[in-house]
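During the no-cost extension, the postdoctoral fellow (Dr. R.K.) reprocessed legacy sequence entries with the updated structure-token encoder. One reprocessed record is reproduced below for audit purposes.
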Amino acid sequence: MNYNRREFIEALAIGGGSCLVAMTGVNMANAVELPGSDGRFSASNVEGVLSEIGAAGAKQSSDIKIKAPDIASNGSMVSVAVTSNLPDTEYIALIADHNPHPLIAEYYYSRKAQPYVSTRIKMAKTSQVRAIVKAGGQFYYASSEVKVTIGGCGG
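Re-encoded structure tokens follow.
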């Protein structure tokens, strides 16, 4: 069989990867869990998200700091940073109330990790941005309103 260089490297990569998977016994069908497969990311309202993550009775806390712009000139890139000063923080979720699917992201922390996240989110329109924090087995939240002028996931 005649291979050119590109075809040879491609065949080598595919064959090597297949052998590696076979040797490690990894079942690729179960290796990746798609977001939304458990309902959290597919919930269409804030109450549904809070119910799915077990945070329906979350208490407001001043120990959670959200840094977000008051006005976002572009809803497709809104910078948000969250810091939790609650002891034993193990989880932070970001929610944009008026997005078609409000749950934006989830972050899990070990006890020694600094509970901080900085990211860019996409917002459909002006909305509350909520940070839901699980610390010491309890859920807490903080929110900040972000006014969106154009763009975003709504159009």
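Confidence is low (pLDDT under 50) at residues 20-37. The domain at 46-148 is CATH 2.60.40.2470 (Immunoglobulin-like). The remaining legacy entries will be reprocessed before the final report is submitted.
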